[in-house]
Design a protein that fits this description.
With 243 residues, this protein is of the alpha+beta class. 37% of the residues lie in helices and 16% in strands. It has one domain (2-204). A 4-stranded mixed β-sheet has the order 1-9-6-2. Strands 5-8-7 form a 3-stranded antiparallel β-sheet. Strands 3-4 form a two-stranded antiparallel ribbon.
């Protein structure tokens, strides 16, 4: 299902509508993702970044890159990751291609990410709403292996190891990558595609939506709680804002 998003209220009404139809709504939170609709490479499916690299030995590259990240990152971090899931989350948050796909429990943050995904080569953006069942959330609890060994895509709730996870109320889908290096896009996966709905954002609504979000305390400084986020917000507020 795809609709046009005109304002924040419209999305929140859709959230209420979806939740009212869920039998186990008190156990099964909705999650949200904002992303480009299309880039120069083509349509943006719900795929993790690592699986978008074509003609690469993704499975072996993943092992190599994470191993190098674990070797080189310790002097640069102030936390002590306890397992490969923690390392994967850290790598994802700081830009490494991984098998994780970012989602958030906060629909306002999803809108903000969608709007800020519009760059020179991106003309429009979109919001995805994912309405998981209880069993979708339970898969992580029952899984005992390593990230690279998963046999099916599942929801992954990270530990709050960095402030970005807390501020962005981050949650992920962690994707199974097959031996042929391919992965199911979530929007094509028969286990999940019926639980997804999509909103397109008209670029002409960008300024008004950013104003709405800022009034609701969702901006660069709250999504990224560091100096970079603060400076990005101040730049928008005093130099780029369209009144």
């Amino acid at each position: 299902m795809s609709q046009k998003l005109k304002n924040v209220t419209q999305l929140l009404e859709e959230v209420n509508n979806i939740m009212s139809q869920k039998k186990e709504h008190y156990k099964c939170d909705l999650i949200f993702r904002g992303q480009p609709t299309q880039t120069k490479e083509g349509k943006c499916n719900l795929l993790p970044k690592i699986s978008r690299y074509k003609n690469k030995d993704v499975l072996n590259l993943e092992k190599l890159v994470i191993r190098e990240f674990k070797r080189l990152a310790p002097p640069l971090i102030t936390i002590d990751p306890i397992d490969d899931f923690d390392w994967l989350v850290l790598a994802q948050h700081f830009g490494l291609p991984t098998r994780l796909l970012d989602w958030t429990f906060n629909p306002l943050a999803a809108i903000w990410f969608a709007l800020n995904s519009v760059k020179d080569d991106v003309r429009s953006s979109e919001i995805w709403i994912f309405a998981p069942d209880l069993k979708d959330y339970q898969k992580q609890q029952n899984y005992k292996g390593e990230p690279s060994e998963i046999k099916e895509t599942m929801i992954y709730r990270p530990r709050n190891i960095i402030s970005r996870i807390v501020n962005q109320t981050s949650i992920f889908t962690i994707h199974h990558i097959k031996e042929d290096q391919s992965a199911f896009a979530l929007d094509n996966d028969p286990n999940f595609k019926t639980k997804l709905s999509r909103y397109e954002i008209d670029p002409t609504n960008t300024s008004s939506l950013l104003e709405e979000l800022n009034r609701l305390n969702t901006n660069s400084s709250t999504v990224f709680p560091d100096l970079e986020g603060l400076c990005s917000h101040l730049k928008w507020r005093y130099f780029e804002r369209q009144f």
